[in-house]
Give the backbone structure.
Amino acid sequence: MQPKEVIFMDYSLLWLDWKPVDSLPEYTKRIIGLPATRQGKAALRELISGLKAMGSEPEQCGSREPGPAIRLTECRGNDEKVTIRRRGESMEIAGSGRGLLYGVFHLLRHLTLGEAYPVWESSPVYPIRMLDHWDNADGSIERGYAGRSFFFYGGRPVYSERIRDYARLMASCGLNGCCINNVNVHENALKLLTGSYKRELKRISSCLGEYGVSLWISVSFSSPIELGGLPTADPLDPEVRQWWKDTCRQLFSSIPNLAGFLVKADSEGRPGPHSYNRSQAEGANMLADAVSPFGGKILWRCFVYNCTQDWRDTKTDRARAQCDHFAPLDGQFRDNVILQIKNGPVDFQIREPVSPLLGHLEHTNSMVEFQITQEYTGQQQHVCYLLPMFREVLDFHLGHRPRQDTVAESISAVCAVSNTGDNYNWTGHDLAGANLFGFGLLSWDPSANPTEIAREWSILSFGRDRVITETVTDILMKSRSIYEKYSVPLGIGWMCVPGNHYGPSPDGYEYDRWGTYHKATHTEIGVERGPGGTGFTQQYSPGLAAMYASVENCPEELLLFFHRLPYDYRMKDGRTLLQRIYDDHFEGFEESLAMSDAWDALAGRLDPDVFARVQERFRMQLHSAAQWRDVINSWLYRLTLIPDEKGRKIYL
Amino acid sequence: MQPKEVIFMDYSLLWLDWKPVDSLPEYTKRIIGLPATRQGKAALRELISGLKAMGSEPEQCGSREPGPAIRLTECRGNDEKVTIRRRGESMEIAGSGRGLLYGVFHLLRHLTLGEAYPVWESSPVYPIRMLDHWDNADGSIERGYAGRSFFFYGGRPVYSERIRDYARLMASCGLNGCCINNVNVHENALKLLTGSYKRELKRISSCLGEYGVSLWISVSFSSPIELGGLPTADPLDPEVRQWWKDTCRQLFSSIPNLAGFLVKADSEGRPGPHSYNRSQAEGANMLADAVSPFGGKILWRCFVYNCTQDWRDTKTDRARAQCDHFAPLDGQFRDNVILQIKNGPVDFQIREPVSPLLGHLEHTNSMVEFQITQEYTGQQQHVCYLLPMFREVLDFHLGHRPRQDTVAESISAVCAVSNTGDNYNWTGHDLAGANLFGFGLLSWDPSANPTEIAREWSILSFGRDRVITETVTDILMKSRSIYEKYSVPLGIGWMCVPGNHYGPSPDGYEYDRWGTYHKATHTEIGVERGPGGTGFTQQYSPGLAAMYASVENCPEELLLFFHRLPYDYRMKDGRTLLQRIYDDHFEGFEESLAMSDAWDALAGRLDPDVFARVQERFRMQLHSAAQWRDVINSWLYRLTLIPDEKGRKIYL
């Protein structure tokens, strides 16, 4: 069934809805330079329309005309370097077409922030900075909390102006790649590979490309069977290899801006090389060889674990799986394969240690996968600004080398699972826009400051009212810690409702097949992952392994990730483990109430629609935070019958 | 979208697949009598085809011909009385057309059982003996475990030969009513009321009617809004009342065999009179007045409770809801209203006390609703023969009157939620056919013996091999107790996975809104429902109230339904409560293994397809029973840290 007409709802332009700026510098009145590339031309258009929205009426001038101006100098090549220089009262933006785009957006953003001469010389650290969409062909979005897909409708990809604006948003914060379909590739999404939707893909790809954004698609490893009619998808089978080569030749030749494939193989029921007793490297390399002639790359997910574990089995530790599967394969992957590794060893929980696999790939390209769609972090009903967590991960010292050993220095690309959908505000919760914008800035410069990003995002989104900026920045910066306090305690993870992952269910995953257990009794809680337990700590470099293995030295926020402990274990501040958890849960709720009150105090300062939408989300958050507080506390109280020292209400 | 063609899968005729019978009596060779009614003619057809299948070649003769014969004597009227007399070597079946049907099926069944002269004089105790289908217009079945609907396909009702065979199956075991659509009335099912599917309904109704089965439909209380375009569904609003009258006039005049409506109002989000501050009686009576001119009846469900309860609220007890809502209304309902009351006060758990509401309706018609679709009793992956439970309920003395105080004597109709679907064997698990057949026999005669029913069903289904009969009867008779032992302990209920209700999740409903809690701590478990607790016990007659309120006198199998108790509470046999639960769970699994072995021993005796299907179900049952055993035991062990006295394996 094919829709007659695709209607997408009205939508906001988010931070690209430039606001008037008082006393713009004189140079904003004149623009010199006529870029030749599509990206350069887009940069010029953005500059003109942005300045107009800010209150200037820029003229396009010849290079000899007098007076301050913005000069766009388009350089050859296709690199992403950008330079913004001040020359007297004028500014020059120099770069390739893509560089000009980044430069123009930088200038516009910083003019909005009140900087008259935002000089800048920058190159992105990573050549691939992308968003992964878990959009299905039917328009639904797996783990999407902001409406339906704007890439797919009624079983097929569709082009709309919204995609153009999405590309603009990406470019404006430094992102350059976009995988448009879910890693779980089903039904019509399979056919993206074989050109059934070539026309639509080409149109989308071209539009993204104008803003320097490459198109990626997720493909199924068993496509030779599903689409090619072959009896096998064995990566060493000559027919299979030929099928992939032929298929890639046709696809890449018709979609010029296609960068490659994202593959979830041998993971949660997806097919993969293990079905044929081949290694992950053999699987990935076969695809890498097929895309290589066209400059394509393979992003190969490392989310491989036993998802049909028996909960009675205490030998298997899901946290170990990534390293166990991939560390021995270091050096066996082609140069155009990048291993995509979730930031933690399990799955996007509110608190996990950094994935130890990131330290084991000396001779293999790797990238970190973050998740800005808030699957386990409040599903965009709770505010949870994730940039501080991402910085923790990027700054983490893996300890395998004497220097340049941080995650940021070890990887060659970054991506995040997108939090967007067709809601008016793109992200469901207006404040979740900060994660989208912030991930972009961090992907360009992994040393970017989350507080500064929050402040900038607030000003771009809500204007320069200092009360708003301070309030929003404060809410954002506190939000992750608050969510963590009232939700899952001390890194133990997985106390959420099975399936939808929203709200508390302390035993929800306890007797299930997902390898995520706490095994709480009335005296103890947690799984021991030190050398006396599952040995997971030994996957880290020696210093880290020793630190995590030691109950005393383990960072307290990860205590229950690594250790099984009695409830009366004494924390560093003298409180018992149990009392710490009670305290966190009461405090977390109180702090979310304070955030909500702080937002309420912005009444009258903000656009009433934005104000009301976020107010409604805070109402939802408070309801859910109370449920988290009371369920976790009651559950622990029923187990232990140890009351809260401060006598606060715990329900029997 | 309308399907071009409806294809139903092949299906078995179950116990109507008459098998050859050795040494049939001489009278089976001749049939005298030509019934005039549709039902009488159907009886004659069934008799001829049944006897043929058994090995006779009956001739239809004039009444004067010599020799033994079966004489069908059709009486006037439409009652359901049937008489089978022996006259010398001949047999006479006398009754109305419907009576003849019941008589013919009785004769055929008993010939198969080996009785040469099954004389019988019987009338059904209840005029309404029906099955409720929770079939949706889209063909799905709520809580259906045997495939898709055979009443609905692609959004509309459809007629097929399977419905005729279904009517034959119903008549053959004494059932006379069938509500074809789900009590949760949505989408196209709404329109059954307004004649959109008049043609299809008429066809279905006519076919059912030929076998003495009345058609019922479920309707939405807010139909005047949804279908009539009125602004309200207030039962006292004149326009609303007129709309229902007009609608009923049109519907009943076009569907002659329509008996009335089943209504789920003010229940789990369904609209009802409470929305307009009207009583349940005002709502039901308004509909009763609308159907009354056409002899119609209203079956009004009493499943009214607060399904958005806060788990922190310990005042509200869902078990009380039926009595609290309906007992005060006794005597206020019209004569053509029948209150439909689930057998227990909560919701079809494997063990509940009898609903106390059944004792409070001196001046109101009531019916018991059983559930033969195994929502909470193993979903037709586990064998669970429910007739012993149904007999317990029917035999239960409510204690409000000195005599005739059993449930069976207090009600005026019975129904069960059907366990059928379009699977080849109708019920998913072949052995679940015994619940369908058995409910029919029990609905005709509430004093029927479950063991005898099981034996009869086995012979009709699998032939007269005595080993099969004994094995199947033994399995069926033990099955409920076995399921109870390894699943939810001692009447506490609800330890199933939320939503789908299959498999264990001890805390699954604990912090949710459904009013179903155990509040287990490491020392105690259960909700106290005595006078010192929620007071639910006081809804029973004084003797029962005192018995249930007393921990010592409360039947042990219901101990945790009524009481909150410490794990070291001593049961009558000296075991602790906890040890009793451990023992039950280990024994329940072992006993299910023994059932499975007993089935395996039938290899070679049974039709190989039947044998293999049931064997596969036992495999599923054992897997699930082990999960129940281990999860319940582990959960209790983790709470209490008290080991099993016999040292059997409990997983941490």
